[in-house]
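Lab notebook, bench 4. Still working through the backlog of constructs that have no structural model yet. Next entry is a single chain of 407 residues. Request: give me the structure tokens for it.
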Amino acid sequence: MVYTQLLHRREGGRIRRFVLLRPFGPGIEIDDVHHLPELPPYDAERDIVPRTPQFLQHELQPDERGAAGQPGLPVVGGDLSVGCNLSGACCSQYPVIPATMEESRRAISTLHRFDPHGGGPGKPEEAFAPATPGKPDMLTPIFIGDGCGFLTSEGCRIHKLGGAEAKPWTCRQFPLQVIHCGDHFEVSILPQCACAARTVRRQPGGDWPRDPLRGLTTVPEIPEQVAVDERRRLPRATYLKWARALSDVLAAPGLGEPVRVLDSAVQSLGIPRAELTPEWLGELKTRMQSEAERLETYLHPAGPQPKGARWVAGIAEALLREPAPSPVPAASDGMVLSLALRAHLLLELPTLAATLRDLTRIARLAGLARAIAPAETADARLETMTLLLYLWATTRWPVASEVTARS
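Model written out:
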């Protein structure tokens, strides 16, 4: 049995509590987080086998961080950065937001100090609850409605009153990702939040923490040999050079539409083009409908994740029913996909071939979806390309590696 997270959502005068059998996976409502009932059999590894990533889990060593006045491994950033547009998209998309006991106390203290008459929780335990079974010191905000309990129409209340320093470290660091690349660390940006599309720009760094390794004990690691497909492998250094070059082309204006760039990369690897076939669209529709129903068992139906899943199902249905419209590109698509490569989402599946085909499908689907109904029509917090990447990464999206597994 694998269960990794606890979700708490205030509904009316009570708090509903759920144990998630894996992140974003099946959820079961419980009464007492300290005494879990017998949970049904669930094989998480089998459930996510097609999504088995190539990433390794690297445990950080003191000498890699730098100790006793000695420098650690170099930390390398990219030339793209993003900001926060205060839409609250990520504060609603991620139902578990880890925070320490100290961070929970600081959040409540900030509310009392700067807005003593503004209402809200008086004690940490009224706003936070355990995030993981058996670990009472690791907490998560209790959701209210379809988002974090500190989220208002003007953004994060803690941030507005006390600044970024008053927020939990998880919130301050997101969407940064630190990746171990053998002889250095790479700091990249996860592209699954709408802010990535609305604020991405060519500028090194950004308003991020100065020490990206702080609070981390493990980070993803790129393996020494990266699988291109079932037969071919690339050395890590060669993969990094190739992925960075492809990322640079996607981010450069005037060098071609993202779909054409990705199609060329697919062709260069000698793998089949990724088309939006009726069979794949039918599978996407069925799965996204199923995902929306499952998510609504523990998330608010008005939340961006259930809404997003239903929106994708509707787009797939429209493409099955009517001739495909002319795609509508977005100026940010290339840079968002460049972020995806810099964050090494190519390693989220067992082979580069599978992931590259999926990203090409997503790029095609984004243009067609905007012609039918952009994601913003489902929820103003959403954005088409980043939502598709988010659902691809967190749901039972029909991924290319499943085709390989069946054949």
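Notes after review: The longest helix spans residues 352-372. Residues 231 and 351 are 10 Å apart (CA to CA). Flag for follow-up if needed.
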